[in-house]
Structure formats: structure tokens, C-alpha cells
Amino acid sequence: MSVKIKVSYTTDQELMEVIKLLAPMLRNVKVKPQKGKFKRAYISQDVEGKA
């Protein structure tokens, strides 16, 4: 199973903290250009097991 997460942040340090927490399951991180006040990143995760 796969999970997609949208992260809004203002500093790169905030994004690095989120990535560090999710690191064991991360598959892909895409950083998009800033629009407005917040920067955006899209994270894909692989989740094992049954829900």
C-alpha cells in the first residue's frame, strides 16, 4: 500500500525534521516551487501490513 502526504513549510529545517521522522518508510520526496507564503513538498510512503 502507498500513502501520499502534502507538507507545507516555511523553512527547509522544518521539512528536514518531517523527513527525519518519516525516513524508515520514505519512498519519494518532491519539492515544488514556493507559491505564496508557504513552500510545498509531496512525500510518498510505502506502508506494509494491513489496515
Give structural notes:
The radius of gyration is 12 Å and the shape is elongated. It has one helix and three strands. The protein has one domain: 2-Layer Sandwich (Cell Cycle, Chain A), CATH 3.30.1070. It has a three-stranded antiparallel β-sheet with strand order 1-3-2, covered by helices on one side. It has one helix spanning 12-22; strands spanning 2-9, 26-35, 38-46.
How many DSSP-defined strands?
3
- Quote the CATH topology: Cell Cycle, Chain A
Head-to-tail CA distance between termini: 9 Å
Main sheet properties: 3 strands, antiparallel
The top-level CATH class is Alpha Beta
How are the elements arranged and paired?
Layout: E1 2-9, H1 12-22, E2 26-35, E3 38-46
Antiparallel strand pairs: 1-3, 2-3
Summed up:
This protein is an alpha+beta fold and 51 residues long. The protein is built from one helix and three strands; from the N terminus they run βαββ. A three-stranded antiparallel β-sheet has the order 1-3-2, covered by helices on one side.
Keywords:
alpha+beta, 51 residues, Cell Cycle, Chain A, 3-stranded antiparallel sheet, elongated
